[in-house]
Amino acid sequence: MSTSRKSHRKTRTGCVSCKQRKVKTFLQCDELRPSCTNCTRRYTPCVYIPFGPPGPLASPASTASQTASPAASSLHALHSHPPYTPSSTPYTNPGPGPHVTSDAQPSAQPFDMLQLELLHNWTTSTCYTLSPDAREEYRIEAPKFAFSHPFVMHAIMAISALHLAYLRRDRREFYLFHAKAHHEAGLRIASACVESGVLSAMDDKSCVAMWVFSTLCCVFATARPRNFGDFVIVGEKGQADWFIILRGSRHILESSSDALLNSPFGPMFQIGAARGKLREKATLDNDVTASLRQNIVDSGLDEGTLALYNAAIDELRKSFAVVYSQTKAELGDVFRWLWCIDDGFIRHLQDKKPAALSILAYFAVLTHSFSSLWWMEGFSRHIVATVYRFLDHSHRHWIRWPIQEVGGIPE
């Protein structure tokens, strides 16, 4: 008696993970959104590839636009969505029903439930955790800029996903996957603008949007998972992309101060300007950097290198003065140091010079005051511990005070 193989329905719309695993009938992708049952059980990213008709042929105008100058292309990219490969799980209603037709059809694009979830989490939760003095700006104004500047939207989505990864440990890897994807998508646009010099050609709204993006990148950099050897602002390949953008956006503050002050984020800039003046006038009764400076002086460095380190310590001392002299410190008081340090110091940090690493450990103490924030949790201890492991035994006593201030370092 012949037997026939039991056939099963093949789906063209299952998720990528289930297709690659070639699951059997009883494990077939059920196409639940935002994550199918199989991916939920396996804690793997659930990605759907939309099917649709091929796009239109390129017109002569679009072909010509491909040969535009890099600056023009980058400026256009500020308002354009890049491909977002891991975009998760568009939601469609599979049920039958009448189709309404009219001369003006609404968009046929399906809802992306994950991105709606991320935006909802941002406006109801995450925005309140970034800065006590800018909650409404982050809740209302940042999304407004994001709708016309996609790189800001990617930054919002990335931080919201990190926040959900922090809150929902059972789906941590899922949210981390999408946080990384959104962050990289936003960086691709913003980095192209910085590298092409298009910052000087941006309009007022784009300048504000780029500034918002750079501040959100700071949050992402401190909140993301950290690995050994990760100094956050530099890595094996040089300066971190987000740090390049942060440093590059200094041009915006210098050349577009009126636009920033007149923007919906104007109150933040007014506070920042006032804190900057306070920083220059604040005094430090107990100079916590004195022993570090003396250790560096005694190490016998050449005059140029010593001047570089002294300048970094001088700026660090100003930050300590304003933070320690105020009953309520601001995040800007801490991160302003990253704006002020010289590019030469960054190169020494990348080369893991003992003096540069030790100065960074002192900077970490400043961030320790904000460890109660979810996105700053463990950041200061991570920096100090990483510096400690890269220092040889003859230099580790240089950071004895930072180790004490952050509560010791993990074994």
Automatic annotation (TrEMBL):
The chain crosses the membrane at residues 147-167. Residues 58-106 are annotated as: Disordered. InterPro entries: Zn2-C6_fun-type_DNA-bd_sf, Zn2-C6_fungal_TF, Zn2Cys6_DnaBD. GO terms for molecular function: DNA-binding transcription factor activity, RNA polymerase II-specific; zinc ion binding. SMART domains: GAL4. Keywords: Membrane, Nucleus, Transmembrane, Transmembrane helix. Residues 9-57 form the Zn(2)-C6 fungal-type domain. Residues 58-94 have a biased composition (Low complexity). It comes from the Eukaryota. It holds the Pfam family Zn_clus. This is Zn(2)-C6 fungal-type domain-containing protein. It comes from Venturia inaequalis. The lineage of its organism: Eukaryota, Fungi, Dikarya, Ascomycota, Pezizomycotina.
